[in-house]
Amino acid sequence: MKARPSLGHVGQPAEIETHQAVADAFMAEHPEMTVEIYSEPWGDYFTKIQTLWASGDASAVPDVLFLSPVVSYAADGVLENLDPFIEASGYDIADYWPSLLEFGTYEGSIYGLPRDVGLEVLYYNKGIFDEVGIDYPTGDWTWDDLLAAAEALTVVDASGRVERYALGMEGGKYELWAGQNGGGILDDMRNPSRCTLADPESVAAIEFFAGMMDANQAMRPANLGQAGGDAGAFSSEQVAMIIQNASRISAFNAIDGLEYDVATVPIPDGGRRNGSATGAAWTMSALSDNKDAAWTFLSWLQSTDGGQKLYTESGEILPALQSTAMSDAFLGQSSPPANRQAFITEGESATTGRSGYFGEWNELNGSIIGPAMDSIWAGEAVPAEALAALCEQVDGFLADNGYPK
Fold it and tell me: pTM for the whole thing?
C-alpha cells in the first residue's frame, strides 16, 4: 500500500532535502508504506497538478498534495472531504492557531490541514541599523516610528538613484496594513456582500504604503522582483527591512555575515495587530485509491511528534500547531532570529486570511482586484480614486455571482 505525497518546492536544495527527510522518517515508523515524492518548482507545480487531475488518471495524481488556496480546489471537486477521517481517527483540531483551519474549510467541511501559518513579522538588518545609528525595532513601534526609521535608512545618491530602500514588501500583502487600520478587502471573506477597500480606513492604509513607495522608502513590486524578491533584496542589502513570514529563516541563516532579527509588525496609533491566518495545506486527492494510507501519512505530517516537529526544526516554518510553535522545536532554536516570540505575538491575534474563502476568489482577485492594486503600487493611479472604481467593479462581480449567498 502506497501513499504518494506531492511536495511543491521553491528550488532551494535544502527544502527538497527536508521533504525527503520527513518522508524517510515516516517510512521508518511505517515500513509497510512507501512514500513517493513528486516535486516541482512553485512556478510549475500548480499547473502540472491541474493537468494531472484533468487526465482523470488516479495513478497519475499524488494521494497527498501540498496546496493553496484550498477553497478553490475544493470548489472544483478535486479534493477529498477530510471530516470523516478526522472524526474516525479522533484527530485533534483544537491545537491549530485561531482562524487557521478556516483556510482549509469549504462549505463547513475541512479539506486541508495547513502545515504552517503565514504570519508576517518585520525582519531587519542589524548591521544597517547600527551603521545608521538608530535603535532596533521594538514591539511597540507604530507606523510613525516606521516612517521615521525609513527616512534614516533610505539612501539616495546625488543623481536621485536609490542605493538602498528602507523596506521591501510584496504588494499582495497590502491587506496587512488595511486590517491594522480597521479596514479590509471585503466585508466577509467567506460570503461577501461588498468591497471595503474604498472605506476610509482601507484608503488611509493603502495611501500609507503607496506613500512610502512614492518617497522611495519602500521598493515598488516591479523593482522588488528585479532584485530577486524580498529575500534577494534583503540578502543583498538593497533593503534594510522586509515584512515576511517564517519561510525566509533558513535562507537567511545560510548567508555568512548576515546579522538580522525580527520584531512584530508596526501598527498605527489606535490600530490592531492583523496577523493573517493562512498557510499552504496538506490535502487528499479525491481520485486517490489509497485514501486510508493517505490519511495515515497526512495526519502524521500534521502531528506534534511527526512532520510538524521535523519541518519546524528545519527552520522553514512557523508550525500550524500551537503546541509545536510554543515548544523548543521553534522557540528553543539557537539560530537566528533571536526574537522568535514575535511570531507567537502575531499569532495570538491572527484573523481570517487575506484570500477569499469562496470559489470565485481567484477569478475576482486575478481579473479585478490584483490589476487595480498593481496600478497603485506602480504609481500610475491615485489610491482613493482607484479604490473607489475598484469597489464598484468588485460589487458588480459579487452581485453577478449571487453574493451574499
Answer: 0.91
